[in-house]
Here is the input.
Amino acid sequence: MTCIDPSRTPPPPPSSAAADHRTPGSTAEPSRQPSHLRSSRRTHLTARDQKHLLNFLPQQLYERQAAARAAQQTTPWKANYAMRAGIESTVNEFVNGHGMRQARYRSQTKTHVQHVLTAIAVNIERVNAELTTPAAERRPRTPTALQNFLDWQRIPRPTAWRTAGKP
Here is the structure.
C-alpha cells in the first residue's frame, strides 16, 4: 500500500463562470444563463460556448504563476534564458539543414550513432568554414529577435554564443 503525500497531490482544476451574453464582462446567475449553457443534458461545451467562460486558477496555482512571472523579470533569469537562443539555432540547423526531424533507424543505439555522426559532420563543416574563409569575407550571423532585445535592454550576452571571442 502506498501513501500519497498531500503536498504532492495535483491541484484542483480551474473553476469556471459563465458570462452573460447581454452584459459583457459580468457573470450570469444560473437562472439567467443562456439555454445552451443551462441544459442539463449537455455534457460538453462547443468552441462557441467556450468563449463565454472565464477560468479561475486555484489560489495555489495562481500564487505559483505570479511568483514565476516575477522571477522572469530578474536579470539573472533573463541572462540564463538568453542561452536558449543559441541552443535553439543549433537545433534548427540540425532539423532543417541535416534532416534530423526523423531518425533513419529504428533502434535507440543506431539513432544515437546517427546523432553523434551528424554532430561531428556539423562541427567539421564549421571548422572548415572558419579555416578556409578569410575573416573579411565571413558574414556574421544576423542577430535573433531575442539577441536584439537583450542588446536593447543592455543585458550582456553569455560567452556560450557563437559570436563570443570574435572581434
